[in-house]
Amino acid sequence: MPAVPLAHLKPEALMARLQKPPVWEPEVVREKAFTQRAPAQAAVLVPIVVRGSDFSDSTVLLTQRADHMSTHSGQIAFPGGKVDALDANHHATALREAQEEVGLHPRHVQIIGELPVYVTGSAFWVTPVIALVSPDFEVQANPQEVQDVFEVPLSFLMNPAHHRRHTFEWQGSRRDWFSMPYQQERITDNGQTERVERFIWGATAAMLRNLYRLLVVNPAE
């Protein structure tokens, strides 16, 4: 399968595709349930940070959840969470959670569309809200929820050469999931360069795979 052309990752192309999507089908919409609790509505922000003079260096902002979280602790995730009764809609949920988790103020965010709802095995019905983010924001991670905040090039995530499919048997049934391992270079406190693997998998990787499926349809348009 081809990578999404760089021209289709520019802000105006992303806006056009999200606002007038072609006929397409998400590849992954539901995980096998491993809980009997009632479904909970949730939303995540998929923040595409617009970087580079020609926007070719745009990234996706991701978080690593704090190790003490009750669900999905330590995993790579989008900013997001459960819908609050006071939230006007899923967009409001995604914006509120992003500000609470990483300090991303709504003034830096332009929502351009949504992906289909993704149902996790933990019974969250998640609406992925796609947004363009201006690069002048400042990260202020909430240590109660977020262990780390980082960015991955959008072009990397939209290239299926970096997508891995996994299958395993668990409790008598087969489970399939995607991962997108990313090797990040970062500077330590003592000025040394180190490589860190960001293992993007599960629901986060599945939603990114669905975004890829949307963007790659008729790439020659």
Itemize the secondary structure elements and their pairings.
Layout: H1 11-19, E1 40-49, E2 59-65, E3 76-77, E4 80-82, H2 90-102, E5 109-114, E6 118-119, E7 124-133, E8 146-153, H3 154-157, E9 164-170, E10 173-187, E11 193-201, H4 202-216
Parallel strand pairs: 1-7
Antiparallel strand pairs: 1-2, 1-4, 2-3, 2-8, 5-7, 6-7, 9-10, 10-11
Q: Could you walk me through the main structural features you see in this protein, from its secondary elements to its overall organization?
A:
By secondary structure, the protein is α+β, with helices and mostly antiparallel strands. It has a single domain, classed as Nucleoside Triphosphate Pyrophosphohydrolase, CATH 3.90.79.10. Helix content is 19%, strand content 36%. Strands 1, 2, 3, 4, 5, 6, 7 and 8 form an 8-stranded mixed β-sheet that branches. The radius of gyration is 17 Å and the shape is globular. It starts with 10 loop residues before the first helix and ends in a 5-residue tail after the last helix.
How does the helix and strand content classify structurally? alpha+beta
| CATH-scheme architecture | Alpha-Beta Complex
- Helix tally equals 4
What is the rounded distance between the termini?
Answer: 17 Å
CATH topology: Nucleoside Triphosphate Pyrophosphohydrolase
Proportion of helical residues: 10-25%
User: CATH class, anyone?
Assistant: Alpha Beta
Strand content: 35-45%
Say which CATH homologous superfamily is assigned: Nucleoside Triphosphate Pyrophosphohydrolase
Instruction: Indicate the radius of gyration in whole angstroms.
Output: 17 Å
Residue-averaged pLDDT, rounded?
Answer: 90
Global geometry = globular
Uncertain runs: none
> Describe the biggest sheet?
8 strands, mixed
